[in-house]
Amino acid sequence: MSSDIDFQHVANLASELNELAKDSQGFSDGFRTTQMREKARQILSATRDPEAQAEEYSIWMGEMAAVRLFHEIYAFQKIPKEGSITYKELAEKVGAETRLIERVGNMLVSVGILSLEGDDQVSHTPRSRVYLDMHPTGLMACAFYDVMNVGSSRWPDYFGKYGLKEAGESFTTSPFSFAYGQPDKNVWAIMSENKRRMEEFSIGMNLSEKFLPCLGMYDFSGIAEYAKNGPDKDRKLFVDVGCAKGHSSIDILTENPEIPAERCVLQDRPDVIEHVKEMDNPVLRPAEKQVIDFFKGQPVKGALVYYIRRCLHDWSDDFSVTILLHLREACAADSRVLICEQLLASPPVPSQTALDLCMMDIGGCERNESMFREVANRAGLEVVGIHRDKQTPVAVIECVRSDSDCR
Ligand SMILES: C[S@@+](CC[C@H](N)C(=O)[O-])C[C@H]1O[C@@H](n2cnc3c(N)ncnc32)[C@H](O)[C@@H]1O
After folding, report:
1. Is the domain defined by 221-401 classed in CATH 3.40.50.150?
2. Which of 6, 59, 84, 187 could form a disulfide with 117 if both were Cys (CB 3.0 to 4.6 A apart)?
3. pLDDT one-digit tens code per residue, 363-372
């Protein structure tokens, strides 16, 4: 099989990796390491023996299942931070059979997540330490397992039952809810039933924030300008729809202190808004906090900007159109709807395609530029600007009412 390898292609990839590494010296941002890892993955892929693929997959599956179980039963926590522990002692600490812990532990040793000392003692490595002390990296890996691995492991049965079409048609049924045996509930209702899983999921997902900027793409100073010189002093200026903890609003208001927070509104579901109020962040204190259901309507009419970040990718096109339709109905002629999301790249890259399939497991969807244009158009909005981040696939998609003259 090695004769099928395109050595020139491999050499080109290797020199691209070399260039990336040279350019990255002195920088420590996640984006550069992600780029280097992606290049290294392309080299691995170009030199991969197709005959070994099934074996490689089986190793990945074994590794992920072993990690997930050790995390669930707190086995990583019970391994001393310094020094080692026998499988027998570890099994006693987590209340399990020694043979079970040994077999699962051996999987982790074989891929370098744990280190074997002597015949039957294990100790931590840097790769196992990310599963300690609620480290967000480990929690994110477990969250992906719970959503994607569990959901997609049932794809053949799910698509066999519901037909070969994109998931996301129904408000509840998705590969995730099907796999968890509760097709009448949506992902959030199911996740909320397990307090630990939900809490860990939120911490893990917060990590993705680090890689997804909300600043540096769109110039929000126009809002401050309107606050100063605009004719209507009562008009709401900025509505953060599906705000979660309000972190985007905090960043935007901190960078643009001339935008008066009292003319901003944060909107989300009841428990989320309760949490925002409890957090009582000083930047957001003067802002209005409002419970909404973005499928039912937009109570703030004629705001200057409606900002909706990382919400549409949770939903199929039809549901996203409904959300945007309510924003469009609330818009004045000069209102802007700003959609902040990742744009799918062409040709596709695995980190994005994997995320897209993960979103399909819960009924959502990642989109490229033309998919956003289509969803916006269906909702009576027109895209008037795509403001891309220079380092990540994130963009702000600026829309106005299709019948507006204010381009
Ligand atoms: C992935 S989070 C994005 C949060 C935030 N905008 C960000 O950029 O991180 C999606 C948000 O949509 C909210 N959401 C979900 N369904 C909603 C609904 N029907 N009405 C209003 N908000 C909703 C969730 O509570 C959550 O805060």
Report:
1. yes
2. 84
3. 999 999 999 9
The CATH number, out of the four listed (3.40.1190.20, 1.10.10.10, 3.30.300.160, 3.40.640.10), of the domain defined by the range 2-129: 1.10.10.10
Q: Which atom of ligand 1 is least distant from the CA of 209?
A: 9
- Residue 264: the pLDDT is 98
Q: How far is the CA of 339 from the centre of ligand 1 (A)?
A: 13
Residues 6+ apart with CB under 8 A from 238: 223, 249, 252, 259, 263, 264, 265, 303, 304, 305, 307
> Which of 250, 251, 268, 365 has most ligand 1 atoms within 8 Å of CB, for mutation?
268
Residue 1 has pLDDT above 50, yes or no: no
pLDDT tens string 297-312 = 999 999 999 999 999 9
Whether pLDDT at 210 is above 50 = yes
Report residues whose beta carbon is within 6 angstroms of any ligand 1 atom: 242-244, 248, 268-269, 272, 292-295, 309-311, 314
| Active-site residue list | 313
Band (28; pLDDT cuts 50, 70, 90): low
- Separation CA 194–CA 277 (nearest Å): 24
Q: Using CB atoms within 10 A of its CB, is residue 219 exposed (0-12), middle (13-18) or buried (19+)?
A: exposed
